[in-house]
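Q: Fold this one first, please.
A: Sequence and structure below.
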Amino acid sequence: MTDRMRGRVLVARLDDAGDVLLAGPAVRAVRTLAREVVFLAGPRGRAAAELLPGVDRVVTWHAPWIDHTPPPVTEERVADLVGRVRGVDEAVILTSFHQSALPLALLLRLAGVGRIAAISNDYPGSLLDVRHRVDEDVDVPEAERMLAVARAAGFELPDGDDGGLAVRRPLPDIGAFAGGGSYVVVHPGTSAPARTWPAERHRQTVRELTEDGHRVVVTGTERDLTAYVAGGDAADLGGRTTLAELAAVIEGAGVLVAGNTGPAHLAAAVGTPVVSLFAPVVAAARWAPYGVPAVLLGDQDAPCRGTRARLCPVPGHPCLSQVTSEQVVKAVRELTQ
């Protein structure tokens, strides 16, 4: 194995699209020495993995210890993963602070993977060759946390790479979706109710942005929600775009208005400023839009802080319900001037 050829390297991030997008800098570091980069993604992360520069092939597997709707652990499921990753020479397992890399490391050992790197504050025994330790009480941006694992494994970003988020080019032509001229994208959906700003506030914001002179495009997968938020004031692209098309729509926007959700990280990857409606159930220092101008709205000291709750544990959802449409419109103005 030469310095330039580290063989076939698997990079794993098994949760959602935003998590996968934040793994981009780590992937590009691995790419500098790997003959082939295989990305192991969960079902909700596959489309994002396919957008990452440096990925040669994507393998999808539904991890029982990661997913919010975990499948059962069966011999057949384990054998399926082991069979599909045979031939991998080494692996870089990427996780959040509340996840363990060790179950996947065990399965990769069964597949014959010879060298495995990951963060583990728990004793890994012979499951890891590179055990990277971090102080979990220190909030580090997720992209930097994952890049640190790649570096610990001996992979560095290429010269001239600033470590920002990125997507493959070229992106699709989205003229049929967004038309010409400037616009603001409003993305009302999130993967967890605890991170969601009320739909009526989104609708009111769309109306006020239009009155403020902006053309507005509403995006998302929940068609009833996007139709309601768009009303008669905005273009409704609900359910009409692939992730790559959504990236192109967001790239063409002056600003994205969104919660802590995948499209906020997609905006960071295409360089679009974000008005971030951020619930503090996870730390903004870790998960806020990375490397782009952003205005963070929401009470970051609310009682739900750090709970990682998917359903709001505080009556009235005060961390976000107190954010007004006027504040969002003002933030959009600040980011577009």
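Q: Good. Now the second chain.
A: Here it is, same layout.
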Amino acid sequence: MQHWYHLFPKNTGLSLFAWIAFCLLPFYFILRSSSLVEIVAGVIMIVLFFTTYRLAFIKKGWTVYVSVGIEIIISVGVTLYFGYVYFALFLAFFIGNIQNKAGFISLYVVHLVTTLAAVTIGFFIQEEIFYNQWPFIIICIIGVILLPFTMYNRNKREKLENQLEDANQKIAQLIVLEERERIARDLHDTLGQKLSLMGLKSELAGKLVDANPESAKNELADIHQTARTALKEVRELVSGMKGTRLKDELIRVRQLLEVAEITCEVEDDLKLWDAPLLIENVLSMSLKEAVTNVVKHSEATKCEIVMKQTPDKWTIRVIDNGVGIQDNHTFKGNGILGMKERLGFVNGSLSFDATNESTTILTIQVPRVIQQKEQEESN
């Protein structure tokens, strides 16, 4: 709402000059009276009306309805005694700003009934004055009927627009936050695997530097190549999401497991897979993180990867013979949380099964999307 000292309301659909005219006209109607007492009484009523009208904007609760009641009484009195009807427009504007629906309807009905009654009676007791301005009185009555609803709907729309603007700002902030989290997850998944590989190779090179210098040089060359690959992938992640095929990711996880001296067995039917690139990318990143966790935490000597496509889903199982699930916090790191969030984006799921203390089965599942080509063939 405007400040109390603002005299003319804004955004009413009427120009500032019209409001100035409505404020000055009552003095003209009053000064037409011959009695000094009538003029003084009229001026007091005008001052009281505007004072109550402006104070009503800063009042709350029941005092607002008392103020409007006083204004309605003054408006009716000025209409009947001086023939000035246009205070009704000020009241119509104020009632349109009432946010409480029950209060708005109640005041609207009371104001409309009293205005119509005052105008009707005024045509009999102030016949000459009312007939001289009857076109303006009709316009005033139309304003009394329409202006409150116009203001009520406008205020409601502005409130919704402000809420929408706030919501859009929050959405923009959430998008930025989600993008940061995505980049953090991808950097963790990408750099985590590469750094683990570089760490293992550097340890191996350290062991071989005296016993077999030539092999140590080869390992150092692999570390250099891995670092270059990691740098390249980081640049690709910054520019956008990188699509990774499962067959390419299998080569990398085999290499990682081999360097970690973990026997790798793969059972797959990738030749029959028809997963979209987005699904393959999610599954590839999840497989990468799962194998990285096996290397880092499981102390396993064997890892089996099983990939299946069924009519309703794609499934990847990573089975290792390591130490198993040690406690409830074992699988709550950034990598696992990132896998769950990424799989959740495609309605996938992640689950663990410890059949015994030395075997852990990590299962990744994503609902299968029926491709358009398959639909056409089935039809």
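Q: Anything worth noting on the second one?
A: The first strand starts at residue 263 and ends at 268.
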